[in-house]
Automatic annotation (TrEMBL):
<dbReference type="InterPro" id="IPR000182">
    <property type="entry name" value="GNAT_dom"/>
</dbReference>
<keyword id="KW-0808">Transferase</keyword>
<protein>
    <submittedName>
        <fullName>GNAT family N-acetyltransferase</fullName>
    </submittedName>
</protein>
<feature type="domain" description="N-acetyltransferase">
    <location>
        <begin position="98"/>
        <end position="238"/>
    </location>
</feature>
<dbReference type="GO" id="GO:0016747">
    <property type="term" value="F:acyltransferase activity, transferring groups other than amino-acyl groups"/>
</dbReference>
<dbReference type="InterPro" id="IPR016181">
    <property type="entry name" value="Acyl_CoA_acyltransferase"/>
</dbReference>
<dbReference type="Pfam" id="PF13508">
    <property type="entry name" value="Acetyltransf_7"/>
</dbReference>
Length: 244
């Protein structure tokens, strides 16, 4: 079912409440005007391709998610363009951040399962997680998970705060295969960056192994830019060393 005018009014109401108290937490495409513009220009043609969900506390809207799915759009020159990616716009009332779990709240089993699902096959176990929890710098409030409506921990990330350099590092970041390409990891990163800022970070880093285009595009979408590259050296049978 497509978003209705009343749905948009409720979402704008949440935008107004967040803007009045924490304007820094108003998300992309979640402001009063962006909601009106994006809904008004597209709902007649693409409304059915955009799934949404609203969360309430009593009668008050406290969170929403609005997914733009792959679709074909007609351009003014008569051509057609296929939008192959998916995008999730969302907003959460800062007073109801519990809609996103921390590892401290979700518990060790959920924290481990979220990692196993994202990185299978893996040797990561509850024992591994207990070791991570004892590692210097680990903070349960900076280990965050997104829970799907069916209870699955859809994605997770651990943030490591270096308070001396005012830097936070995301390591690891992973998404359950069934929930990829839905914008959840992006939402997780944005939420994590807000938490890191509140914790005192002024910079953020993340490492991306190899050349995974989707991972790179994800990190670029929230503002990360390439800083450096590692060049592993391997010794060949001929005895020469090559960089790759």
């Amino acid at each position: 079912m497509a978003l209705t005018t009343e749905d948009v009014r409720l979402m704008q109401g949440l935008a107004q409440r967040v803007a009045a108290t924490r304007p820094d937490l108003v998300n992309t495409d979640a402001s009063f005007g962006e909601l009106a513009w994006n809904w008004g220009k597209d709902h007649a043609v693409h409304g059915e391709s955009r799934r949404h969900r609203l969360w309430f506390s009593g009668a008050e809207l406290v969170a929403w998610g609005w997914a733009q799915l792959p679709r074909r759009v007609r351009l003014s020159d008569g051509s057609a363009k296929d939008i192959t990616g998916a995008y999730l716009a969302y907003q959460v009332d800062p007073g109801h951040a519990g809609l996103l779990d921390t590892a401290s709240e979700a518990g060790p089993d959920a924290a481990v399962q979220s990692h196993v699902d994202a990185w299978a096959p893996t040797s990561y176990t509850v024992s591994s997680y207990e070791g991570v929890r004892r590692a210097p710098g680990y903070r349960g409030d900076l280990h965050i998970l997104v829970e799907a409506p069916d209870g699955t921990m859809a994605c997770s990330a651990i943030m490591w705060l270096d308070d001396v350099n005012e830097t936070v590092e995301f390591e690891p970041v992973g998404t359950h295969p069934a929930y990829r390409r839905r914008g959840l990891a992006r939402a997780l990163l944005v939420h994590g960056l807000h938490l890191a800022l509140a914790a005192g970070a002024r910079h953020a880093t993340v490492a991306s192994m190899g050349t995974p285009t989707q991972a790179r595009d994800l990190y670029y979408s929230v503002g990360f830019r390439e800083l450096s590259r590692d060049a592993p050296l391997v010794k060949t049978r001929a005895g020469t060393a090559n960089a790759r």
